């Protein structure tokens, strides 16, 4: 039972990381004439959706689980 639970958790984590990578797959945004993209998430972030009040120079980027306002990097 315990081994099965661990295997299921590993599969879910793998799927989560794969989906996070696909979401940030080089999507380019133009802000004030500058091409920006989201940085790659490092690790497993908070599983929250928090992009309602992003500043003008921030993008709504994946943090490894949810999405948060993040400074874009030059594309």
From TrEMBL:
<keyword id="KW-0732">Signal</keyword>
<protein>
    <recommendedName>
        <fullName>WAP domain-containing protein</fullName>
    </recommendedName>
</protein>
<feature type="signal peptide">
    <location>
        <begin position="1"/>
        <end position="20"/>
    </location>
</feature>
């Amino acid at each position: 039972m315990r081994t099965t639970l661990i295997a299921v958790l590993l599969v879910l984590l793998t799927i989560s990381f794969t989906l996070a990578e696909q979401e940030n797959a080089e999507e380019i945004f133009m802000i004030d004439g500058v091409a920006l993209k989201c940085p790659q998430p490092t690790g497993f972030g908070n599983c929250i959706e928090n992009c309602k009040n992003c500043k003008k120079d921030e993008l709504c980027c994946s943090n490894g689980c949810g999405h948060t306002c993040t400074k874009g990097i030059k594309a």
